[in-house]
Write a structure and sequence with these properties.
This protein is an alpha/beta fold and 363 residues long. Helix content is 28%, strand content 26%. The N terminus is likely disordered.
Length: 363
């Protein structure tokens, strides 16, 4: 009696309603009025490919919410769906963490939801997407510490700490206080492969440990000094050092690196300068930190227009040599050996990383 993935095909006498009782259907099949054909991979009504996307689940849940609380007025389900999709400021994309989603700025900020309690609205979002916490981004902070402006919407009073696993490493941070750039994943992977075993390194802009962690855990530097200005990032950095088992080989230097980096003058073999849009303020600090007798490597981050890249690289080399001499190191050779194009920052503007080998010239 149970017929899965089937269609009813009527004989010449007509089509039998599929809602007929099973006994009637079976009787008509015996009499040759109805035949049954098996259809493979039949698509469920109302679903694309038989499976709803997260966006479709979210829209469907919000339509039901409006229906149940009467916020849709006299509109039928089709019109409610149209209103949710076109007037409800429902985002198509969002950031996902283990048990949290972070919606883009302005999400669900619409008169469509004026009749719905905010608690009920955000709980519906969480349940439809299978998470326990929902947050919404605010305006992007372009200040020196690049602080996050994310607000937790559900549940009330929840914290913003999340965990991200990338390239075999663990990063944890509070999304309401610091930012995390997923676009730098390949550069983080690359930093774990540089030939730095046994070296002493300096990360002038450590953040939560984006490059500090792979240098320690995978490139196997012997020791690393990590400078970071933002106290919230410092807290996350310390957690990440512990989580990845490398805290014993790292000294965190909180505060302004113009002061803290003086502690490592002439002590390191490698410096990472991961600040955007420009790390130029740290070039002098980096050259001062390199060992006077052997020099080392700099990884210099910058946003550079495609047309300006050759001239910028030439200026970088010349400026680093000048800074070495200004620091009392004498004449040095500073050569860009590799340029990584990490991601586009704007049309024809790239976030690049220049690997620069800096060595003292032998007299």
């Amino acid at each position: 009696r149970r017929m899965l993935s089937s269609v009813l095909k009527a004989a010449s006498t007509g089509i039998v309603d599929a809602t007929s009782a099973p006994d009637e259907l079976l009787d008509n099949m015996r009499r040759g009025i109805v035949t049954v054909e098996k259809v493979e991979n039949m698509q469920a009504a109302g679903k694309v490919g038989g499976k709803m996307s997260p966006y479709q689940r979210l829209v469907g849940a919000l339509v039901l919410l409006l229906e149940n609380v009467g916020g849709g007025g006299t509109r039928d389900a089709h019109n409610l769906k149209h209103a949710v999709e076109n007037e409800g400021a429902v985002p198509h994309k969002w950031e996902e963490y283990t048990d949290m989603i972070v919606l883009p700025e302005g999400a669900l900020r619409s008169q469509t939801w004026d009749t719905i309690s905010r608690d009920k609205l955000w709980m519906t979002v969480a349940q439809s997407l299978g998470v326990t916490r929902v947050a919404v981004k605010g305006e992007i902070d372009t200040g020196r510490m690049r602080q996050s402006h994310v607000e937790i919407m559900h549940p009330s009073g929840a914290d913003g700490w999340v965990k991200v696993a990338q390239n075999g490493l663990t990063y944890t941070f509070d999304v309401t206080k610091v930012m995390f750039s997923r676009g730098n994943v390949n550069e983080r992977r690359r930093m774990g492969t540089v030939k730095a075993q046994g070296e002493t390194a300096l990360d002038l802009y450590a953040g939560i440990g984006y490059f500090t962690i792979p240098l320690l855990a995978q490139a196997d530097v012997a020791f690393l000094y990590a400078c970071e200005l933002n106290p919230d990032s410092v807290e996350a950095l310390r957690r990440n050092l512990r989580a990845n088992g490398v805290e014993s080989r790292c000294e965190v230097l909180p505060g302004d690196n113009a002061v803290t980096a003086l502690k490592v003058k002439g002590l390191v073999d490698r410096v990472n300068l991961g600040l955007l849009p420009s790390s130029e303020l740290g070039w002098g600090l980096a050259m001062a930190a390199l060992k006077s007798d052997s020099g080392g490597w700099l990884h210099v981050h910058e946003n550079v227009a495609e047309a300006d890249e050759p001239a910028w690289l030439e200026r970088l080399q010349d400026e680093l040599c000048r800074l070495a001499k200004e620091d009392g190191k004498g004449d040095w050779s500073c050569k860009v050996s590799n340029v990584e194009h990490v991601k586009t920052f704007a049309p024809r503007v790239w976030h690049i990383v220049a690997d620069v080998e800096c060595r003292p010239l032998k007299s």
